[in-house]
Write a structure and sequence with these properties.
single chain, about 130 residues, alpha+beta, Glutaredoxin, four-stranded mixed sheet, 4 helices, about 35% helix
Length: about 130
């Protein structure tokens, strides 16, 4: 009986390791990446990663300032482990920039300041919003 239980336990453990963390947990699918017809910045990180947490307010600010001009998307690779291989990331945070045609044009690993992000967006043809 114990042998049968251990066999099932190993099977369940193996299946849990094959299922991406967070799969189906939130119920919300990430947006189509890159966003069709729009310059897109995808920041791949995690809520608990220190540099990622430092970037969170910057990304939120950029998301508001560039609304309708560029898509700014954060994806948590610790909650959905299928994202790391999909985007080919080796470290977090990683920022991936796509042009309007959906072609990857720039990739960066580590913290990226607001000014640095705005420079990349400008090179991709997205004008910096007017100061309020």
């Amino acid at each position: 009986m114990l042998k049968k239980f251990c066999g099932w336990g190993l099977l369940l453990l193996a299946l849990s390791l094959l299922t991406p963390a967070g799969a189906g947990a939130s119920g919300a699918a990430p947006p189509a990446i890159p966003v069709k017809g729009m310059v897109t910045l995808v920041d791949l990180g995690a809520d608990k990663c220190i540099p990622c947490r430092m970037m969170a307010p910057i990304l939120e600010e950029l998301k508001q300032e560039y609304k309708g001009k560029a898509a700014i998307v954060f994806l948590d690779v610790w909650k959905d482990r299928s994202l790391a291989p999909r985007f080919g990331i080796r470290a977090i945070p990683t920022q991936v920039f796509y042009d309007r045609q959906g072609k990857e044009t720039f990739r960066h690993e580590g913290f990226l300041s607001k000014e640095q992000i705005e420079l990349v967006l400008e090179k991709l043809g997205v004008a910096k919003p007017a100061a309020k």
